Fold these 2 entries.
Entry 1:
Amino acid sequence: MSTNIHPTAIVEAGAEIGNDVRIGAFAFVGAGVVLGDGCQIHERATVKGQTELGREVEIFPSAVVGAAPQILGFKDDGTSRITIGEGTVLREHVTIHGGSPKHGGLTSVGAHCLIMVGGHVAHDCQVGDKCVFANNVALGGHITVGEQVWMGGMSAVHQFTRIGRHAFVGGGAIVVADVIPYGSVIGNHAHLAGLNITGMKRRGFSRQSIHDLRAAYRMLFAKEGTFSERVVDAEETYGDCPELLEIIEFIRASKSRALCLPE
């Protein structure tokens, strides 16, 4: 299939268009955009700024990718940019903003993600591969989301928060603290409700890994002793469980924000 650009679409000079790309009616592609092979930009979608799309990215009508970050006094020095990994799908009205120059300028979304209607990824976010965000999920600035995180509709995440790999965020949750890898959080404000066992089973984690992680989780969030002591005890007891070691590394990696904890 050859590249097909609708006659009403606007593709500015300087845009790099790969093979087998389709650009629909009244779509806009800016001069600094790179579209990988097989991308599909539906009618009335906008891709602008310094934005690079991997192979076979699909952007649905009325989505806007590459607009300036929502920062007071923002001045673009050319470093504000976006990368979207191959096979990612952005549904209607999704917005993704470029990064802020003082923080490196990059906003990135990984490969094979699905961001459903009305989702928003703010400046300087880093979203891993194979994430699924339901309708109207909103990420504030500077958020890091690990791979294969699923977020329910209308959930929102406070700026500078981290969400670990394979975590689950329930619909309507307001996340204001870091979420451990494999954790499942719900509520407003969100609290840790356990582990994302359903997600782990779907992704083929072994029964032994799930069993050990459950036991380690109970130890980590027990009532006895201090949290620091429980982290050490869990590491000593279940140090052969790589999923637990990932959680402990996540906990120790940042002292600047609180963790989502059980109620």
Entry 2:
Amino acid sequence: MTVIAVIGSQWGDEGKGKAVDFLAERADYVARFNGGNNAGHTVINEFGTFKIHLVPSGIFAQNTTGLIGGGVVVDPAVLIEEIEMLNKSGVGVDGRLWVSPRSHLIMPYHKILDGLYEEAKGAGATGTTRRGIGPVFADKVSYNGIRWTDFASNIFEQRLQIQLELKNKIIAALGGDGLKYESVRDEYRGYYLKLKPYLKELFSLVQDGLKAGKNFLLEQAMGTFLDTDWGTYPFVTASTTIPSAASAGLGIPPKYLTQVIGVTKAYTTRVGAGPLPTEIHDTESEVYKKFGEVAATTGRTRRVGWLDLELVKTAAQLSGMTEICLTKLDVLSGLNEIKVCTRYELSCDPIRYADVDSYGLEKIEPIYQTVPGWSEDISRARSFEELPVNAQNYVKMVEEAVEVPVKWVGVGPEREATIRR
């Protein structure tokens, strides 16, 4: 039996979707345990190119069963769209994708409030995806949430009526237009009928699978430093993103976790506001243009920076990382020199990530080491020995600094563009 958690060791967008896709061939169950459709995972394989937000990225392995745990918040329209897309693409998820009835629903007022809160904050906006994630988690912990179980127990209408009375007052106070009860009720009744065949209590299924020695692959949404407690608060997401969240979000006790694979991009990116110590501010520079990316979920251009090893080492220690999957090494090809942040200083004194808050992190000085780059195109390399010496040294530098072995190296977006060490 293996229970493997795949996490991002930075601010998301590390390439977890690809990592889960190629690891899923040996999994009996692939599962999401946190977050919502604010996470976008890109998968490229024999079925095509997919941007997935709720269905586990390992669903393409035909021997697997996909699970969406109760720790995930669900936008029903997005989930229905993904299911239909996957079925039309020949993947076929009927009978092998199950959604916990404990999961909370993103309602129309959550998305409206998400946008209104951001606008009200002005320059202090946190840069949310405006998909209603923060407001739905706020409702979850303040006993105002709506779950799939509410439909089965026939209290959906009552809870919706109460919530609309509350939420319409807040929406109006912030200058927005309220929602009509009948319209929302009918829309979500329709969603429930479409998704009812996929709803299933997962506790016994998970527990029986653990007893039977089945292999689980757990897919984290977002990245370590968007965690509510350990991330760059308040520029974070609304859920816990470290592997321990699988216990609450899926029902897997921590003692069963056998591996934690930290997906680490060969440089650093983040979307939205918040500190990025190694950020490259010269938008006209060759490096900025080379690292430039567009987020799968929001379509926003990602901010970019050099690899931050202090950040990755903190993620490794926080999550008990056992292996690293280093992605996008091919993007560094063509650079004569590559800068890597090895540690932080504040007022000339060494300091760790955990010693400062988000605002203090903006004041630290990243200390860089410059290493030689390589000119060769490495996208066709399929063994470590095929990589240029300087590329090999870059990989070795990462694992020595983080004190975790690099077991996989990504040299392209496709599933097969992965070197196994």
